[in-house]
């Protein structure tokens, strides 16, 4: 299976195929609204605005598995992200990223890019960078600032421009 073989539901309930992101550089992030790392939404939005016209997408997946830091409804989470951080990148319905009920996309991502000690997601704001061919290029720890990923994103985007 590849990244493009998966589907997920956006906040509005619309089922989206990852095929929609074919040919783009994608950053997949499990998010939370009440976490010490929640301010990363600001940086995520900044890099989205900077690179979206070059073929870059961010896919946010709220998750309540870590200290119940995203217990609100999908509507509440969506509103929080827009009002507090101006999030305009795609946010999907709340999912599980670990355990037997983990979303199939996250099962795939974790197998493609294992963490430091295990493949399980350790906390909110773990990030996965996917290239234009749907390959998982790198996994970033929750504490890695989205701004520190810019060079990796630019490198992948430059490959689009020069092909």
Automatic annotation (TrEMBL):
It comes from the Bacteria. One of its GO terms (molecular function) is peroxidase activity. Keywords: Oxidoreductase, Peroxidase. Gene3D superfamilies: Glutaredoxin (3.40.30.10). PANTHER family: GLUTATHIONE PEROXIDASE. Belongs to the glutathione peroxidase family. This is Glutathione peroxidase. It comes from Romboutsia faecis.
